[in-house]
Each structure stands twice: as C-alpha cells, then as structure tokens.
Automatic annotation (TrEMBL), chain A:
Family: Belongs to the FAD-dependent oxidoreductase 2 family. FRD/SDH subfamily.
Compartments in which it is found: Cell membrane
One BP annotation, GO: anaerobic respiration
EC number: 1.3.5.1
Membrane topology of the entry: Peripheral membrane protein
EC class of the enzyme, as a word: oxidoreductase
Catalytic reaction equation(s): a quinone + succinate = fumarate + a quinol
Protein species of origin: Fodinibius halophilus
Protein name listed in UniProt: succinate dehydrogenase
Keyword field contains Metal-binding: no
Domain FAD-dependent oxidoreductase 2 FAD-binding stretches: 35-441
Residue span(s) of domain Fumarate reductase/succinate dehydrogenase flavoprotein-like C-terminal: 502-638
GO molecular function annotations of the record: electron transfer activity; flavin adenine dinucleotide binding; succinate dehydrogenase (quinone) activity
Annotated keywords: Cell membrane, Electron transport, FAD, Flavoprotein, Membrane, Oxidoreductase, Transport
Automatic annotation (TrEMBL), chain B:
GO molecular function, one term: 4 iron, 4 sulfur cluster binding
Domain named 2Fe-2S ferredoxin-type: residues: 22-107
Top-rank taxon, per record: Bacteria
Pfam families: Fer2_3 (PF13085), Fer4_8 (PF13183)
Name listed for the protein in its UniProt record: Fumarate reductase iron-sulfur subunit
Details of cofactor binding: Binds 1 [3Fe-4S] cluster. Binds 1 [2Fe-2S] cluster.
Length: 639, 254
C-alpha cells in the first residue's frame, strides 16, 4: 500500500504557499466539464460543496438528513480557534500550531497541523463576511474566550451555538450555489458504496431513504465528509444518525483507516440516567472557563453539594495541574474524572459524576454575566436534569464525543484511492491522539473552504478521466453489493432488535475500548465483538420493508458496519502498546495517571488495510512514520 | 430510580404520502420521568418490533434541541406543552400516570406527509435558496475586524439567527404561514452590514418563494412565537413586511 504523504519540502511556514504555487490548475472554462460528488453537508462537506461550486465545478451534494442544514456540526457549542491575536495576548500561528500538536500528544503530521493554524484566520474572515453573528465587544469588534489546552484567548464564539451559526453560514453559501444551478442537492440519501473504475473513485451508490431505491451517481472525484464514528459506542454526544457507513464501505474498497483507536472522551457531559437513554448531551468545554470541577473529599459523601463546606471539597484539577487548572485538555480532564469516581468520590445516584460549580463565578461576575455567556447551556442542563445550575453545581461525566482517527489522507486530503478525498472528522488528519477544544470547527472549515477546492483541481488537472457510464460493470457490481447487503439483513429474520445489538456493542466498547484500555480487556473486547457480530447476522430482526422509509433498516446497515469497525478499533488499541493523548493503556501510565508515550516504537500513523471478514476481521497494518523536524517531542505537562 | 408509569398514546400512522392515515391507540407502561419524549417513543417502537409490527417513523437527529429535525404535534401543540422546548427536549416528567397523549405530524400544505410522523420540509430550503445568504465567495472576505458591528445589532441578529428550521411556526399557524421562519432569516441578515447591500432583493425573493410554496399569509395570531423552541420574536414579521413594502414600492433597485 502506498502511503506517500506528499508533504512539500521546505520550511514549515512555506510548505502550503509553495504547494499552492506548484499545484496544477483547471482552467475556468474547463471546470464546468467536471463533476464532483460531496458526501455530507456538515462544516467540511457544506463548505467544500459551496466553494467547489463557486469555482465552477458541477457539484452533486448528498446528505442523510432532510435538509443540508441539519448535519451534526450544528451541535458544536463552544467555539472556533484562530490565531488572530485580537486580544493582544501573544498568540501567533506558531503557538496555535504548537498547542494543537502538543495537545494531540505528537501523533499528528506536523505539516498538516501547521497549515491548519495558518488557514484559521481566513476562516473567521469568511464566516464574518457571510453574516455569522459571532460574539462582539461593546466597541463592535469580535470577542474571544479561552479554551482547554491553551494559555491565550483565541476562541471565537456565537454564544453556545457556534457550530450552528458556522454551519448555517456554509449551508447558506451552498444554497446560493443550488440557486445558481451549480449544486445538485440530494437530501435523505445515504451513501452505501464507492464506485472504483480503473483504480480511481468515479462515483457512489446511494439508497434513497424515502423510496428505498438504490441509485448510481457518477463523477470525476468524490469528497467524503461524512463525519466521525463515535456512535460505535452507542451512547455518545453524536447525533443519533451519525455513522461510519460511508467511510467504512470505502475502507472495504481499499481506503486505509488510520488510527481508529483515537477516540476523544469529552469530560463535561450530562451523566447517564437509565437504560432507555438514546444519547448523551455535551455541556460545552467553555464552561470550564468559569466552572470549578470538584468532588467531596469524603468517599460516599451524600450531602447536598451546597452543604459541603469548602475545605471538604477536592478541586482535583486545580490541585494537580496548577498551571492550567480546570482548563487542562479534554483527555486529562476525562481521565481524572474517571480516577476520582473509581476511587469512590463520584457523586449523584450512580456515583459516576463529578461537580462543575459556578458559584464562585456568579459571586464574582454576577448572575447576568454568567447567563450572557452560558445561558442556553444552563437552560439545556436544567431542561434535561430538572436541576438549576445557578443554584447548585452541575453534575457531569465524560462521554464519547469525537474521533480523531478516520480514513488516511495525504497532504492533499486524498485517500490512498485516487480521486477519493476525505474532509473533516471523517479523515484522520490534524489532531493526532487528542483534539483540542474549538479545533473541530476550524479543521472542518479549513478542509472544505480552503484546502480541497485547490487540491481537487490539482488531481483533476493531472489525471486522465475518461467518461464512465453508469452501466459500467463497476457500477453494476457496487449497486448489487449494496442491494445484497440490504437483502441479507432482511433474510436473517431473527428476533433481536437492532437497538439491542447496538447497545451491547456500545457497552463492550465503553468498558474495554474507552477511557482506559488494557491488553487483557482489549483481547476480551475483540472476542466479544466477534461473537456479537455473529449473533447479529443470525438473529437480527429488521422490521418493515426495503422499498419504503425505514429507519430500523438504516440503523441495521450502520450497526453491521459498527460491529466490524469496533473490532478494528480494539485491534488498533491493542497493537499500540503505549499511551498517547486519549489512548490510555493501563500498562503505560505514570504514577499520577498520565499517558506515557513510546516515541521510539510508536511515532507513526497506523493505517489499516481491509482484507476481509471471516469470523475475525482481517486487516493488514501499514505505517506512515511521523517525522518531527520543527518541534521537539516532549512529555506533555499541564502542571 | 423513579417509578415507572403508564401513558395512553394516539399516534398518527400513514403508510405513505398518498395513503390515508389514522390515529392508532397504544398503551405504554414503562414510562420513566427522566425519559425524553422521543426516548418514550423509542421504547414503544422496541415493543412494536418485538411483537412483529412496523415501528412508527418520526424524524430526529441531535436530540439536544439544535438540529431542528424533530417535529411532533403533541396534544395539538407543536413540540408539546413546554415553552421554548423541542420535541426531543421535552421530558416525561411533564406527564402523569394515565395521561392520554395525541401525537400527529406537523400539518401544512407546504409540509406533505412522507410516512407516519415524518413530513417533507424542503420548502424551507427553497426559501433560503431564493436569497437567504450573503453573496460572498470563499476567499474574498476582508479581515473580520475591518467592519465593526454594534454589539446590540450583532446580538439581535444572533437572536434571529438561532432559528433551527423545525417548522413549528408553520404547524401552529392557523394560516400555515411560514412568515416567522422567513422573517427570522431576513431579520438576521438584513440588519448586519454584511447583509445590507442585498437587503431589498433578498426580502422580495424570499417572500415570493414563501408564497409560491403554498404557505399562507400572516394574520398576527402570534401562535408561531408561542411555539418557537428558540423564542424568536414576531417582530421579525413586521420587519419583513416593512422591508418588503419599501422594496416593492421602489422596485428591486431600492
């Protein structure tokens, strides 16, 4: 397998501009002769579709939702980073780059991460020009706040709805191109396969989620922006329909899946309340700017939190990490929440929660100031839990939130399948083993607005792309494959619901491939997932029919893929015999529970090549060595 | 863990867009006060599937009140009894043992039923497509701080920009008007310096598209504001009308 990262030579700060100088262009009058498929309409897909259409390509855009405005990017709350240095607190592109690569525990590609920091400023300009209503100061200029893993204020925000506002900006830019006739938008369509002709991605197969019809779509290049795979855990902060199917089907056609074990567990979510629970709700990390995290010092202390005196509270983040305090990166915060709960200091009915307390902030700044910053988050919390965070501390616990792993891509964001580009959370690119807060929006929009529109031109200009008919054998084979998978699901005709399988998979993943992993647990997980997968294919019940709107059928297809991916995640976690970022192997941690990396043996991207499923998932490991020419590898410390 | 209780449900079932529909009775006895309304329907669906039936279709995605997918008419109220709350954020603690709950789709000429409780809201996309944007190409933006925006203007624009496009305003309106949805996007973009140059054209184009989609006129019932899960003010509609009149009087050059 060819894993040439195609990183341009030269100094770090000149690589991207040099690359832009060097890459081939498609002339304006030729762009309209080329079709590009974009799968997904989140920040990455929406911005890519709009920008490609503005350039003149014929764009076909697909999403599973009923509107392109609803992709899960919409749920991002806290903000988006950029190195504008508007607050004059010493921020630079280098610092944003350095914080991101350090936050990722030195497991990302230097060149990609640097480019992300370079592009960050343009994104803010673009969004403001679109009318995205970012928070402003009284002088009329943009406001910033702090986020985890950084000692500067570089996060731009729109109350607690930054993802929504940025997504609406991208969606509106898309709809303008729909109006211009440059984007052909297809909602309620689920991609079930990629079509490869002469070794190049030339189309996709979709299922129309309303009629059930299997459809064929042809193009010169395919951009996959289908999001992350956190729902392998069943319960996560992801939207219920977020899934890995589009990416996984590409993987089964030969696209390498990189670092699948890198899963971010967000420290501030609302705890689980019962087994009917369908999803977990995130409380933005921005809350850690003003909220103080604590547990009672006494194990099993069941007094009301307001009755526990100051000196009987354990502010464990502030005590252990005085330099960053409550603003340590997400992996560190999540791990420490688990540690105090494992030690018996957890709170709430399940003992699997810690307090996030705003009392000091309210006394310091007043209730109104806190309401202005976090009002909608406080309302959301109260709505779900029936507790008022102005009056008593929130109860929070970590939950699966974001997946840093994804399809392998080179510097051009192209997978190892020529013509298949991957953007946003669906690729593995920029965050290494842990993503810093407010960096997902930055990456999705960087990929879509400012990288793919150029690199796709370079690909199209440099390739022979003869016309392909939708009756080509490769389309027949892929369409039959998609239909065959659906038929097979109905044929099982068992008596266990898809939801039960998904919940059981999630429990295995959370217990054994979650915050802390061990060799023993991972080996058990692999075996249990294999057994569950076998049971699924012998006993799943899919109600209804294929030729109609059928959500259970959609879920069945997705859960079948999660049952394979879950095994790969466990395999990847097992093979990576070190701790790094979010990947904590119990065997490799300091006395204080910090991740201990092994740079000598594991400073590489693990890219897995699908070989087949035969009881066991067969995958071959390939390695892209990570070279650090510009930063020095250090043990992370936030003390 | 709280005790479970029983609710009686009357739920709209409809095979497809051109099939007749009807309210079907269900009784669910495993309801817990901490469940969300949609989780209650999930539990019901699991029972239906176990008994070999076809589950009830309804739209949802984020389940945290921001994506705008969920859209249930609950006892005649769009998104149910709780103000500023989407169907997905409504919790069963708002109901008691023995309650009867009628669940229907958001009904409007502009929102044809697809199946059961799922409707087609693509008319909203076409209204945005008509002009709900600022015509700025990627890469052509000036520095973000080059145009100061008065904080109060930015905050008000944000209030209108919070619309999630769920369609509750249409479902609640006796005229099935989409004026609050359309007005909110106009009020967001038209008051910002970035949106100002296209104000007249945008207003005319979106209003005309709204009418073309079969949504009715606004008669100031204000039902839309009452059910809007984001609390968007009907001032947006007054503003839309003012801007429409101005643009119509002066022609599209205004």
């Amino acid at each position: 397998m060819n894993l040439d990262s195609k990183v341009p030579s030269g100094p770090l700060e000149e690589k991207w501009s040099k690359h832009l100088n060097d890459i081939q262009l498609v002339a304006p009058n030729n762009k309209r002769k080329h079709d590009v498929i974009v799968v997904g309409t989140g920040l990455a897909g929406g911005s890519a579709a709009a920008s490609l259409a503005e350039l003149g390509y014929n764009v076909k855009s697909f999403c599973i939702q009923d509107s392109a405005r609803r992709a899960h990017s919409i749920a991002a709350q806290g903000g988006i980073n950029a190195a504008k240095n508007y607050p004059n607190d010493g921020d630079t592109i280098w610092r944003l780059f350095y914080d991101t690569i350090k936050g990722g525990d030195y497991r990302s590609r230097e060149s990609n991460t640097y480019r992300l920091a370079q592009i960050s400023n343009e994104i803010i300009d673009q969004a403001v020009a679109q009318g995205v209503p970012f928070a402003r100061e009284y002088g009329g200029l943009l406001a910033n706040r702090s986020f985890g893993g950084a000692q500067v204020s570089r996060t731009f925000y729109a109350r607690g709805q930054t993802g929504q506002q940025l997504l609406l900006g991208a969606y509106q830019a898309m709809m303008r191109q729909v109006h211009e006739g440059r984007i052909d938008l297809h909602t309620r369509q689920e991609m079930l396969d990629v079509v490869i002709v002469d070794g190049k991605a030339r189309g996709i197969i979709t299922r129309d989620l309303v009629s059930g019809e299997i459809k064929r779509w042809m193009a010169d290049a395919v951009v996959l922006a289908s999001g992350g795979y956190g729902n392998a855990f069943y319960l996560s902060t992801n939207a219920i329909n977020s899934n890995v199917t589009a990416a996984w089907r590409c993987h089964k056609r030969g696209a390498a899946f990189a670092n699948p074990c890198y899963v971010q567990i967000h420290p501030t979510c609302i705890p689980v309340s019962g087994d009917y629970q369908s999803k977990l709700t995130l409380m933005s990390e921005s809350l850690r700017n003003d909220g103080r995290v604590w547990v009672p010092k006494e194990k099993g202390d069941d007094r009301h939190p307001n009755d526990i005196p100051e000196d009987e509270r354990y502010y464990y983040l502030e005590e252990k990490y005085p330099a960053f305090g409550n603003l340590v990166p997400r992996d560190v915060a999540s791990r420490n929440a688990k540690i105090v709960c494992d030690e018996g200091m957890g709170v709430g009915p399940t003992g699997r929660a810690v307090y996030l307390d705003f009392n000091d902030a309210i006394e310091r700044e007043g209730k109104q100031a806190i309401a202005d910053k976090y009002g909608n988050l406080f309302e959301m919390y109260e709505n779900i839990t029936d507790n008022n965070p102005y009056e008593e501390p929130m109860r929070i616990f970590p939950a699966v939130h974001y997946t840093m792993g994804g399809l392998w891509v080179d510097y051009n964001l192209m997978s190892n399948i020529p013509g298949l580009f991957v953007a946003g959370e669906a690729n593995f690119s920029d965050h290494g083993a842990n993503r810093l807060g407010a960096s997902a929006l930055m990456q999705g929009l960087s990929d879509g607005y400012f990288i793919i529109p150029y690199t796709i031109g370079n690909y199209i200009a440099g390739e022979e792309l003869p016309d392909v008919s939708k009756d080509h054998d490769a389309f027949d084979e892929a369409a039959d494959n998609a239909q065959g998978h659906i038929d097979k699901l109905f044929e099982v005709d068992g008596d266990k619901s898809v939801v039960e399988f998904h919940r059981e998979l999630g429990q295995i993943m959370w217990d054994k491939v979650g915050i802390s992993r061990s060799e023993e647990g991972l080996k058990e997980a692999i075996k249990e997932i294999q057994e569950l997968r076998e049971e699924f294919w012998n006993n799943v019940r899919v109600p209804g029919e294929a030729a109609n709107y059928n959500k259970y059928l959609e879920f069945a297809g997705r859960v079948a893929d999660f049952l394979e991916l879950g095994e790969l995640m466990a395999k990847d976690a097992l093979h990576r015999d070190e701790s790094c970022g979010c990947h904590l192997r119990a065997e490799h941690q300091s006395d204080e529970g910090e991740a201990l990396r092994n740079d000598k043996e594991y400073s590489y991207v693990a890219a897995w090549e699908f070989q087949g499923v035969n009881g066991e998932l067969q995958e071959e490991l390939h390695k892209e060595d990570l070279e650090f020419d510009f930063v020095e590898l250090k043990q992370r410390s936030y003390k | 863990m709280a005790d479970t209780f029983t609710v009686h449900l009357k739920i709209w079932r409809q095979e497809g867009p051109n099939e007749p529909g009807e309210l079907v009775d269900y009784t669910l006895d495993k309801v817990n006060e901490h469940m969300s309304f949609l989780e209650m329907l999930d539990v019901l669906n699991e029972e239906i599937v176990k008994e070999g039936g076809v589950p009830i279709e309804f739209d949802y995605d984020c389940r945290e009140g921001i994506c705008g997918s969920c859209n249930l008419m609950i006892n005649g109220q769009a998104h149910g009894p709780k103000a500023m709350t989407c169907s997905c954020q409504l919790h069963m603690r708002n109901y008691s043992d023995g309650d009867t709950i009628v669940i229907e789709p958001f009904r409007a000429k502009g929102f044809p039923v697809i199946k059961d409780l799922v409707v087609d809201r693509s008319a909203f996309d076409r209204i945005i497509e008509a002009g709900g944007y600022v015509s700025v190409k990627t890469g052509s933006a000036p520095d973000a701080n080059s145009i100061p925006v008065d904080k109060s203007v930015a905050d008000t624009a944000f209030d209108y920009a919070t619309c999630i496009g769920c369609g509750a305003c249409v479902a609640a309106c006796p005229n099935s008007s989409a004026s609050l949805f359309t007005g909110a996007k106009l009020a967001h973009l038209n008051r910002l310096p970035q949106g100002e140059p296209e104000r007249a054209e945008r207003t005319v184009a979106m209003v005309e598209q709204m009418e073309e989609e079969g949504f009715g006129d606004c008669s100031n019932y204000a039902e839309c504001e009452a059910v809007c899960p984001k609390g968007i003010s009907i001032s947006a509609i007054a503003e839309m009308r003012r801007n429409y009149m101005k643009a119509a009087l002066k022609g599209s050059e205004a």
